[in-house]
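To the wet lab folks,

You asked to see what we're planning to order before we commit. Fair enough. Below is the target structure as tokens, and below that is the sequence we designed to fit it. If anything looks off to you, flag it before the synthesis order goes out.
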């Protein structure tokens, strides 16, 4: 029998050491549900994402965390037969409202995927500005400066500055993932979504991405899906634990400050997952 969902939002005690401005919300969901055809994948997700913080989504495979992530910038709807109910609010504007342009949404809320996916027929330079071509900014006079700024932001400039016209596919896996992050940053998003960005990388490349995430939160709000609980504890400020019940529908079991969730979870299912009793 499926257990009831216990949602735990950060309390005043959890956030007492934070500056008052951090209590605002960058992104939030209200009753978010998503389907693949007739299959309900996630149900009634209510999640608050704070600005300039890293929010991690954790949980076993099939619990809906990647689906929830893709719903945050309308990537879910590009899948044939997929649909969404509920609301996702960016600066209190519902991104699923009829008059909202999904291309503009994906500019404001960027996405970095699990497997590095630089465009193989494009140079490193052209990979960075690929998104700008869609927004009509690729002819901007300061384009070269933006490319350099984005590559510096992901600590890649010194490694590639002398080979910007080489294929992006010529880089190592870790470099490719940082290039993809630079591509996401080039359109100047407010939020960056990362779907298991280190799962295909070696430990050294993973360390560099984790360092990068910590640096980027000074300028961006970041939501990251990870199977690695140690990674979640290292890089995130808040953690959301997802779990699918007997009906294979993912739900948000618990959400709160990472330190509290990992050391004093409020739901036994969270404790069981974190201590390795299942998952």
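Sequence we intend to order:
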């Amino acid at each position: 029998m499926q257990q009831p969902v216990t949602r735990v939002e950060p309390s005043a005690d959890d956030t007492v050491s934070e500056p008052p401005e951090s209590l605002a919300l960058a992104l939030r969901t209200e009753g978010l549900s998503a389907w693949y055809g007739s299959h309900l994948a996630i149900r009634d997700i209510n999640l608050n994402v704070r600005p300039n913080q890293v929010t991690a989504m954790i949980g076993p495979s099939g619990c809906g965390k990647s689906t929830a992530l893709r719903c945050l910038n309308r990537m879910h709807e590009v899948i044939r037969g997929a649909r969404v109910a509920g609301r996702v609010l960016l600066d209190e504007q519902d991104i699923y409202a009829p008059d909202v342009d999904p291309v503009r949404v994906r500019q404001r809320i960027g996405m970095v995927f699990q497997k590095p996916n630089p465009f193989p027929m494009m140079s490193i330079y052209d990979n960075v500005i690929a998104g700008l071509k869609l927004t009509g900014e690729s002819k901007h006079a300061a384009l070269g400066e933006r490319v350099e700024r984005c590559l510096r932001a992901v600590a890649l400039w010194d490694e590639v500055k002398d080979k910007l016209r080489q294929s992006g596919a010529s880089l190592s896996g870790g470099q490719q993932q940082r290039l993809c992050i630079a591509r996401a940053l080039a359109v100047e998003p407010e939020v960056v979504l990362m779907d298991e960005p280190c799962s295909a990388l070696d430990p050294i490349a993973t360390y560099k991405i984790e360092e990068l995430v910590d640096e980027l939160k000074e300028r961006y709000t970041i939501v990251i899906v990870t199977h690695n609980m140690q990674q979640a504890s290292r890089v995130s400020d808040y953690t959301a634990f997802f779990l699918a019940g007997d009906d294979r529908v993912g739900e948000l079991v618990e959400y709160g400050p990472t330190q509290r969730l990992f050391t004093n979870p409020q739901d036994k299912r969270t404790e069981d997952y974190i201590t390795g009793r299942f998952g």
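Structural context that might help your review: Residues 27 and 90 are 5 Å apart (CA to CA). DSSP finds eleven helices and eleven strands in the chain.

Thanks,
Computational group
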